[in-house]
Amino acid sequence: MNTMARRRLLLAAICAVAVSTIYAAQPVLARIGDDLGIPEADLGWIVTAGQLGYLIGLVLLVPLGDMFDRRRLLVGHLSLSAGGVLLAAVADRLWLLLSALALVGLLAVVVQMAVAYAADLSSPTERGRTLGIVTSGVILGILGSRVFAGGLAALWGWRSVYLTLAVLLLALAYLALRLLPTDLRTERPTYGQVLFSLGRLFHEGLFLSRGLIAFFLFASFGTLWSGLALPLAAEPWNLDTAQIGLFGVAGLAGALGAARAGRWADSGQADIVTGAALVLLAVSWVATGQVAWSLWAVVVGVVVLDFAVQAVHVSNQHLLTTARPGRTGSVIGGYMVFYSLGSALGATATTTVYSTYGWTGSSVLGGVFSLCALAVWAVGRRVVAGDRRSVAA
């Protein structure tokens, strides 16, 4: 295995473990509630604390990657995150647990630093391939953390999940220090300049269109993964937690297969891949909506949806980092704000719609989100084509 391949795998592993620190609480919420005596109505704050910290970190911490040595930033964030999850593991009060998880969420933006670092380490002809592999680690962490946390909690309790994450984070910090190159800078912008540059991105057509696509893309993703457990646990299937967790494995198959999208992006097909994948995303909801009649249809829908999400996500990041090679940290951080807001919308909306209209309503909602993303892509292409004709004239 060559040096670049080892770096890709290490950065993918960092993404997988770091993002797991946010999502590991979801399958063990009931156990945490029982242990700490937390009312069911307040359990949602355990997930929300991490998400709020993450959103703040996207704006305030990720741009630091455009100022300082990203290897040192990775090592520092991973080490501090290990301290945060250790604090969560020993928390005996809700306020202490929430504080720890908010800190962990804040530092979980090391994922975006790793993605931006990977983009800069790659040659232009291999950037898409690298982004495909590294961002596959993100999906691996989001989906795999459900299986990982559920299994550990069943054997040794929910605290063992965070103790294990602490060990993994420290091990990755050591490997990053040993295996990743120093990230030398020829220029050092101030923090104010970096934040100003981030704000200006929201006035750029390409950034806004790709950001809005990401918003609706991850709203659709959140609709599925925050709501699918509800119909699976209900009649006629009555699946238990472990069985429901296996659907995450199906999602991993689709997400990891989409690493191929990076190679397509390298060949100049990122925009076409985006449109085709968004069509697949919309079609996947037809299969996923059949949960009352066929679990196999749901499996197919899950695989297709996760493939489509990963393909669009990789293509978006490839286009944005190529357009702004000197500001990859700010670009990735700003782009992921759309991701975070879309995920939150999908997670909140799907449970609300499900309570009134069942899984059919949630499936329609997910399909509408995907069609909105497709519409943004189509309008964005038309605007770009119009600009090109104006320039030619």
Distance between the termini: 50 Å
How would you classify the helix and strand content by structural class? mainly alpha
Largest sheet: none
Number of helices: 17
Overall radius of gyration: 20 Å
Kindly report the average pLDDT value. 86
Percentage of residues assigned to helices: over 70%
CA-based shape: globular
How many distinct beta strands? Answer: 0
What is the oligomer described by this structure? single chain
Task: Give the uncertain stretches in residue-range form.
Answer: 387-393
What sequence of helices (H) and strands (E) makes up the elements? HHHHHHHHHHHHHHHHH
What percentage of amino acids are in beta strands?
under 5%
Write the layout of secondary structure elements.
Layout: H1 3-23, H2 29-36, H3 44-60, H4 70-90, H5 94-107, H6 110-121, H7 127-156, H8 159-179, H9 191-201, H10 205-227, H11 229-233, H12 241-245, H13 247-257, H14 260-266, H15 270-288, H16 295-323, H17 328-392
Helix pairs in contact: 1-6, 1-7, 1-8, 3-5, 3-17, 4-5, 4-6, 4-8, 6-7, 6-17, 7-13, 7-14, 7-16, 9-17, 10-16, 10-17, 13-16, 14-16, 15-16, 15-17
